[in-house]
Design brief:
Layout lengths: L3 H14 L3 H4 L6 H9 L3 H97 L5 H24 L1
Length: about 170
């Protein structure tokens, strides 16, 4: 049928079944047992019988403890390891949150710097374009003072608008 554990369980049940029901009651009352022993003709025999039942109970308890001790011990160790791993994970998450917050700050400051550099490059490109236009106007100065004056005025207004726009930013 079963292995050694099965036969040990049957043996333990047989031994437990030999114990008087008065001793296994949920609410144990010792007075009837004491009175029985004191009024018995064979007190030594009754005491010996109680000692035998006590030995059987101790043997059953020892077997149960021996049988389940390693399982309980392993379960406690596993539970302890799981708690340790959860604690380590919680610590790792806390460190990760701090690292993410620092990364976010760095990216934000880099983004601001990049925006400033982009804005500066756009402004410089526009200034270069205006300088090219001024150079072209100076090359065609013989078209007449009026046309040159108008072109110079237009370029000046564009430069002034860029300057004001940049100040407002």
């Amino acid at each position: 049928m079963g292995g050694p554990q099965f036969y040990e369980t049957i043996y333990l049940r047989d031994e437990l079944s030999k114990i008087d029901e008065g001793w296994t009651a949920t609410r144990f009352d010792s007075l009837p047992h004491v009175v029985h022993i004191l009024t018995s003709k064979d007190r030594e025999g009754e005491v010996q019988f109680l000692k035998e039942q006590s030995e059987v109970i101790e043997e059953v308890v020892d077997e149960v403890v021996h049988e389940y001790h390693s399982g309980f011990n392993k379960a406690i160790q596993n539970y302890s390891q799981i708690l340790r791993l959860f604690s380590e994970s919680a610590e790792s998450l806390a460190v990760l949150k701090v690292d993410l917050a620092e990364s976010k700050k760095l990216i934000g400051s880099r983004n601001k710097q990049l925006h400033q550099l982009w804005y500066r490059s756009v402004t410089l490109r526009h200034i270069i374009s205006l300088l090219d236009q001024i150079e072209n106007v100076s090359k065609v100065g013989n078209l007449g003072t009026y046309v040159g004056y108008i072109m110079a005025l237009t370029i000046l207004e564009s430069g002034e608008k860029i300057g004001k726009w940049r100040e407002n930013r």
